[in-house]
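Hi Y.,

Following your request, here is the sequence exactly as I used it, all 244 residues.
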Amino acid sequence: MSTSTTAILIINISLAAFLAVGLTPLFVWWERRISAFMQDRTGPNRCNIGPLRLGGLIQSFADMLKLIFKEDFTPAHIKYKFLFSIAPALVFICSFLTFATIPFADNLVIDGKAHIMQAVPNELGIMWFLAFAGLSIYGIILGGYSSNSKYGLLGSIRAAAQVISYEAAMVLAVISMILSYGSIHLTDIVNAQQGTFFGIIPMWGIFIQPIAAIIFIVCSFAETNRAPFDIAEGESEIVAGYHT
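Below is the corresponding structure, written out as tokens. Let me know if you'd prefer a different format.
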């Protein structure tokens, strides 16, 4: 492997790690503020560093620090402690690897050789994304099964069933985009959206396949168990489900 290839690979991996971990507080803040706006409430705005509140953004960083310093606790009644420990790691690894196929720029040509600007350069494109998104189900099931709790097991089964069911519709939406742009490579799909449709409408996927875009957005909310697709949590009947 040449020096330039190694340097580009390190840069891509660093960018993927930054997007997967470093932007999480920002994404959480976006969700909280947008949800608060939709529900006609204030949202987080009290946590501060001296006079700095940043519209509630400090709350997200406080939550991140809280998670870092939390005790890694395993209840005594857990039968399969190894599975209980690797379940969240499996979910995180699968989620992180979905970022690995996202192109950060167009193909970079150095000395006549094209370098794919992805953390893990491969020819699978969107198929890599769908494969690892589906593998996260195993982490959910392992977590519920190894918890030795009927509430946790029910919560994991409901979460896995919801993910699988909505993934079917999500894959169909993605296939419609592949048919529209004629490629499974995300770089090609991004480049294909630079032009215009009929000279006026941008060649964005949301305009080319509006129904598929709506289906994909709805399925994304369902995959992340966000309201109104929070049946896996089930506060009233399974004691907050997967939280057990």
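The two ends are 47 Å apart (CA to CA).

Thanks again,
Q.
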